Amino acid sequence: MSRVLMLQLLGMLWLFSWMVVTEADSPIYKDPKQPVAVRIKDLMSRMKLEEKIGQMAQLDRLSATPEIMRTYSIGSVLSGGGSTPLPDATAKDWIDMINGFQKGSVSSRLGIPMIYGIDAVHGHNNVYNATIFPHNVGLGATRDPDLVKRIGAATALEARATGIPYVCRDPRWGRCYESYSEDPKVVREMTEIIPGLQGDIPSNSRRGVPYVIPKNKVAACAKHFVGDGGTTKGANENNTVIDRHGLLSIHMPAYVDSVIKGVSTGFVISDWQGIDKLTSTPHANYTYSVQAGILAGIDMVMVPYNHTEFIDDLTLLVKKNVIPMDRIDDAVERILLVKFNLGLFENPMADLSFANELGSQRFGEGSSEKITCAVEER
């Protein structure tokens, strides 16, 4: 065998061994060619308890820092109403802020990206120069599901422009304008906003089955859960007293449709300091509230200002076997599923790709005629 041929063979063997070692060093959960379920299973097997519990916490942006995101493996950050990085913040201002938090997340031990959320309830309404649409009660008056779907698509694109991938019956209820109608049929029709926000479910997928959300879309949240618009005496965040027939015929249909249209790709998240109010005096027994909330099926808890208290209490409850580990795993799997389906592990950082879409005139023109007609007819 010639010296040249020997060197060639040795070179090939070295290259092959290097490829094998490199592939072995790269975790399965970071391989986009693997099925999502396989990636989740691999990542879950590597996570410590504190990292799993960190994923179950959502902070307000005022409480978050890159260091907090990294240290606690925080799962999500949100902007509460009116919470912006700067007055009249531009798309670049939003992206710079969100990417700052994300850099902290991806620098953690396992590099799990966070998901940023915001209330975009009638357009991307927290953002300066965004297109503002009528509130849902006005859109319900149009009786036009296709219009609502197009408004959802416009809202999704404007939310993505700022780097954000995650977005009643009693008239005495102060938030009744956030519902589409008191007529369950109308509300069911208006769930078309979900495919507008998330994209249509691929033709080769079963309805309600998780699918990868395109880059110009966002993960939708059906809120504020079944029965919230029918609270006693119309009081916000009050109990809903209703019989089973009323619950299933009035409040449930739109949520069933929401699940069918893809919201089931997500997780259950509590409202702003919501679990604090499980006791008659809010925050009177926070450990109990954490226990009751998680055991009831809440996967991620919105803890805008007290994430360390939540993490400490939940950790203690798990270590004392009050909350079983499989409940924690169930919650974290749902959270990771959304992040994988959004492509955050491959593209965690936001960019300015859609910045020119913010406040685009074509979004307003597409809906103004129908909305004007609805007002005139009334």
Automatic annotation (TrEMBL):
Signal sequence annotation: 1-24
Biological process, per Gene Ontology: glucan catabolic process
Glycoside hydrolase family 3 N-terminal domain span: 49-262, 266-336
Entry keyword Hydrolase: yes
SUPFAM superfamilies, alphabetized: (Trans)glycosidases
Keyword entries, A-Z: Hydrolase, Signal
A single GO molecular function term of this UniProt record: beta-glucosidase activity
PANTHER family: GLYCOSYL HYDROLASE FAMILY PROTEIN, PERIPLASMIC BETA-GLUCOSIDASE-RELATED
Protein name: Glycoside hydrolase family 3 N-terminal domain-containing protein
Classification of source organism: Eukaryota, Viridiplantae, Streptophyta, Embryophyta, Tracheophyta
